[in-house]
Fold:
Amino acid sequence: MSDKPRESRATVTVLSAGYLGDRTASTVGLIRDGDTLVVVDPGMVSDRSVILDPLAELGIDPAAITDVVFSHHHPDHTINAALFPNARIHDHWAIYTGDLWDSRDAEGYEISPSVMLIRTPGHTAEDISTVAGTADGMVVFTHVWWTATVPVEDPYATDPEALRVSRARVRAIADLVVPGHGPVFVPDESTPQ
Structure:
């Protein structure tokens, strides 16, 4: 099975770059692939307008979002999922729609022809990454890195060795990385392994 989607026609927008410190916010992203509109990690932000205003500027009603992906189940990445009432919710082992729980493994799951999920454990045992094939290459939304530079060693990692393997997996496919709590970056030799 490939780590890359079969098509590369998606577009990616960072709705809000996350941050760490006295306050914490997740990086929240939008992926468009035809009629598929995916929000990744709609977690903690200073105000819901931080997510909703950029969508409005793009002409997207929250009710039009088709899918929401949780990289993992920490509240700082999930707390605003209810902003998207019609979306299917994806995590590591299921898709949730209304009152339906459809069990499936996230590994290799294709949300659309240009968007797929891969397992990237380490921070938690259940971490997944969202891979978007775009005209400019592969963009990976992931929590294997909090930012481009910190922390080198994840102090909350449930499995540091699995995290190293997941980081190598993402580095092998990513042209751009959208980390859990920071701006987009290009992975290179200086990216923590």
In short: Helices lie at 49-57, 160-173. The first strand starts at residue 11 and ends at 16. The CA atoms of residues 107 and 118 lie 4 Å apart.
